[in-house]
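Final report, Chapter 2: Outcomes

The project's central promise was a pipeline that accepts a single protein chain and returns its three-dimensional structure in a standardized token representation, suitable for archiving and comparison. That pipeline is now operational. To close this chapter, we reproduce one record exactly as it appears in the project archive, with the input sequence first and the structure output second.
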Amino acid sequence: MSLSDPIAQMLTSIRNAAHARHAEVEVAHSRLREALARVLVAEGFLAAAEVNGEGYRRKLLLRLRYTEERQPVMRGLRRVSRPGLRHYAGAGKMPKIRAGLGLHVVSTPLGVMTDREARRKNVGGEVLCAVW
């Protein structure tokens, strides 16, 4: 099965697993998906992300985080840039979400990072997704 938007597929898998209160979700591996997962772990939205398998059978195992009341830490997850309509932003015009309570994940020439890091490093790029 070929996917036209693998990032959206990953975000949907995370959203569905959190809604069903699963402890972890497994998605196909790619370097971009792994970098996106590492940013979400660093920001505290996911508990862990690890790569399993070898070669073309590699999978990305994502452990989800929940509050004490068993509510997902990640309240919302939305794909911004998509294959049919790419969304790019410069360092000065980097969008903010929820008055700074959420974040945008940006793919820059320096790697995948949050919008705050991109502003601090004065670099722009493609806005992949919004998380709050």
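Archive annotation: The domain at 6-64 is CATH 3.30.1370.30 (Ribosomal Protein S8; Chain: A, domain 1).
This record, like all others produced under the grant, will remain available to the consortium after the project formally closes.
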